Amino acid sequence: LHRVLNTPQLFAIGFGDVGSSIYYALGVTTLYALGATPLALALAGIVFLCTVLTYTELSTAMPESGGSCSFARHAFNDLISFIAGWALLLDYVVTIAISAYSIGPYLGNFLPFLKTTIGNIPFTLLALGALLGLNVIGIKESTRVSFLLAVFGVVTQLTIITIGVIFLMEIAQPEQFIAHVKQLWFHLQVGLPDSAWSPTWENFWKGVGMAMVAYIGIESISQLAGEARHPNRTVPQAMLATTVTLFVLYFGTSIIALTAMSPQELTTGYLENPLAGIAAFMPFGQYLVPWVGFLGATILFVAANAGLIGASRLTFAMSEHFTMPRLFYRLHPRFKTPYV
After folding, report:
1. How far apart are CA 61 and CA 84, in angstroms?
2. How far is CA 19 from the centre of its chain?
């Protein structure tokens, strides 16, 4: 495999894989954690940070494709590596399926037929076919597309958070802003009886478990360590950049969401598309909702691409060490990519 990837391309894959989770994880986390959702995301974030630091160390020490499958082989043996590899492969299959199948509904504002199963399944297969072709042509071309879409996603989410702070939290009016902050702080409490905003301790810990889903995917960067230039530098930079970006976006989004509406409104009307709910409660919401829909589609496209890249590199690495049939250890004769 050719070492052609720099920090921005690695960041794009990591952000696409992890950052897409907020589009479905925020609603489900709020379903259990209610007003304490930012706290649940913070606790899950601490676990995520530990995972990132672990992957940073291991990817630097063993800069090769395979991620934790390779780490397990070095630390233990081929059997443990085989189990880790297949667990990861199933994870990638599910990630690709969820992400690709969710692109259509987000584009439903522009193409209503994509909201139907009959319309969305062929569209999902076409999207996967396009990604497959892009990845066979080359990892550099594939990650370049992902980077452009990731930048669009980050800018859009920061714009939504900024508009929310200005118009919903009323930062220009200090008294109103302080009142909103106090209200959010009060809603973070857990176990208050007879409160529509306060979850029970049991539901709060379920919410933390759901929040963990929002941080799944950092593995995809380590899968590309074998194709990264100067992996001892670029891989840690990409992982830490992804972590910082996600913390800002996740906490900003959850705070603005719970300022815009109650947890009950979020989970009944916008469970599967919380960002559209935020946009609907803002000034100029009728213009923001289609924009957010397009944003969701682009980030999910990047996430499906990240899963496809990760799965192909994982199968390539596993077959190299005979934990999958040798058939998968092939590079395209022209493009030199793992295409089987």
Report:
1. 19
2. 3
DSSP string of 293-313, one letter each residue: HHHHHHHHHHHHHHHHHHHHH
What distance in Å separates the CA atoms of residue 303 and residue 194, rounded to the nearest whole number? 40
List pLDDT tens digits, range 108-149. Answer: 878 888 888 888 999 999 999 999 898 888 777 778 888 888
Q: Looking at residue 52, what DSSP letter applies?
A: H
pTM of the model as a whole: 0.82
**Calpha distance 23→19 (Å, rounded):** 8
Q: Is 228 helix (H, G, I), strand (E, B) or coil?
A: strand
**How many Å separate Cα 309 from the centre of its chain?**
15
φ/ψ of 180, rounded to 5, equals -65, -40
How far apart are alpha carbons 146 and 155 in whole angstroms? Answer: 14
Contact yes or no for 182/20 (Cβ under 8 A): no
Span 234-252, average pLDDT: 90
199 DSSP 8-state letter: P
Q: Smallest Cα–Cα separation from 207: which of 38, 334, 23?
A: 38
The span from the CA of 283 to the CA of 47, in Å, is: 36
Q: What tokens were used for 234?
A: 């670029």
- The per-residue b/e assignment along 38-76, b for 16 or more CB within 10 angstroms, e otherwise, is bbbbbbbbeebeebbeebbebbbebbbbbbbbbbbbeee
CA–CA distance, 135 with 146 (Å, rounded to integer): 11
H-type alpha helices, 138-173 = 139-163
Closest listed residue to residue 306, CA positions, set 5, 34, 81, 2? 5
Contact call for residues 219 and 21 (beta carbons, < 8 A): no
Backbone angles phi, psi at 197, to 5 degrees: -100, -20
State both tokens at 237: 């930079």
Contact between residue 272 and residue 22 where contact means Cβ atoms under 8 Å apart: no
The pLDDT of residue 1 is above 80: no
